[in-house]
Amino acid sequence: MGNSALGIIETRGMVAAIQAVDTMVKAANVEVLGMEKIGSGLVTVMVNGDVGAVKAAVDAGSESAQKLGEVTAAIVIPKPHDDIGILVSKK
Predict the structure, then answer these.
(1) Is the dihedral of CA 9, 12, 18, 20 positive or negative?
(2) Taking the model in full, what pTM does it have?
(3) How many whole angstroms separate alpha carbon 86 and alpha carbon 73?
(4) Mean pLDDT for the stretch of residues 56-69
(5) How many domains does one find in the chain?
């Protein structure tokens, strides 16, 4: 993942997750890495880009998703270890 940051938002419900990722890519220069359906209605969306862009995207996406459903987690990981790339490879 190099020097980029990883941004993750987890929601309860697909609609809120789609809203989150749409807002994230419109709010900042980030790339969508993928989406995971975890179970029990939990959906995780992941983006990467430079730290500032990912922070702006996660903030905007979380706020937007919260209007439609529950945001259960949101995190920005600056300079994630390269081994994390195995877990969040683009699909």
Answers:
(1) negative
(2) 0.91
(3) 21
(4) 97
(5) 1
